[in-house]
Design a protein that fits this description.
alpha/beta; five-stranded parallel sheet; three-stranded antiparallel sheet; about 50% helix; binds adenosine-5'-diphosphate; binds adenosine monophosphate
Length: about 220
């Protein structure tokens, strides 16, 4: 079997990043987060980052042109041969079609697209409480995922943490609107292709992880 290509679909706060990092550890797959790539471009002050910054702060989607250029660069790295988990990509029809074309060029296709199904209202609380370790990027939540020892990252011990500028209630509502208008239609797109899986992602992190690991073990092991 060729290397798996998994897509995690879901609105902001659904748990895509949390689950992708766990799958990376368990299955040796590579997490590809276009949000992380764009934030790195903004921090580095590249042309793409300068163009994306205000759009991201407003909670809208960055242009397909910029996102696809960044993703294609990343997909050219050798580690993706282990198999990938796409987190936050594709987010538009155009990105989904471009991904199909990119994969077809390498004799591959999407193995599974997993829709993390959640209630919008709960997502405002999930996103507003999110923070990450400034040292290693491990994700936490004020209520749902606290470090075992307060103020110390479980993974690397760092005592520095950060929050995203776009993780405020007002911007989250814009991001949810963008999700429903431009990204949610991809659920039907992957259903038609016969690769869609749905998971109830309202339960605890560990329960979502178990459901997801069951799917990944079945389609990609
Ligand atoms: P996404 O990548 O889909 O935007 P994240 O994985 O960053 O979402 O999760 C958003 C926040 O919610 C994080 O702070 C994370 O710790 C927390 N979280 C993730 N999954 C769950 C869950 N099933 N229940 C409660 N909180 C969760
Ligand atoms: P995320 O980290 O996935 O929550 O993404 C944060 C922000 O980055 C989004 O609100 C968008 O502005 C931008 N972004 C991330 N991925 C994409 C994508 N695939 N297409 C367009 N914009 C994106």
């Amino acid at each position: 079997m060729s290397a798996p290509v998994l897509i995690l679909l879901g609105p902001p706060g659904a748990g895509k990043g949390t689950q992708a990092r766990m799958l990376e550890e368990e299955f040796g797959l590579v997490q590809l987060s276009t949000g992380d790539m764009l934030r790195a471009a903004v921090a580095a002050g590249t042309d793409a980052g300068r163009a994306a910054k205000a759009v991201m702060e407003a909670g809208a989607l960055v242009s397909d042109e910029i996102v696809l250029a960044i993703l294609k660069d990343r997909m050219a790295q050798p580690d993706v041969a282990r198999g990938i988990i796409l987190d936050g990509f594709p987010r538009t029809d155009g990105q989904a079609a471009a991904l199909d074309a990119l994969l077809a060029g390498a004799g591959q296709k999407v193995t599974a697209a997993v829709s993390l199904e959640v209630d919008d209202e709960a997502m405002v609380g999930r996103v507003s409480g999110r923070y990450t370790c400034a040292g290693c990027g491990e994700g936490y939540h004020d209520e749902f995922k606290r470090p075992a020892s307060a103020g110390h990252c479980d993974k690397c011990g760092s005592t520095a943490f950060k929050r995203r500028a776009d993780d405020n209630a007002e911007t989250v509502r814009e991001r949810l609107k963008a999700y429903h208008a431009q990204t949610a239609p991809l659920i039907a797109y992957y259903d038609t292709k016969g690769v869609l899986e749905r998971i109830d992602a309202m339960g605890p992190i560990a329960a979502v992880r178990d459901a997801l690991a069951g799917i990944v073990g079945r389609v990609a092991a």
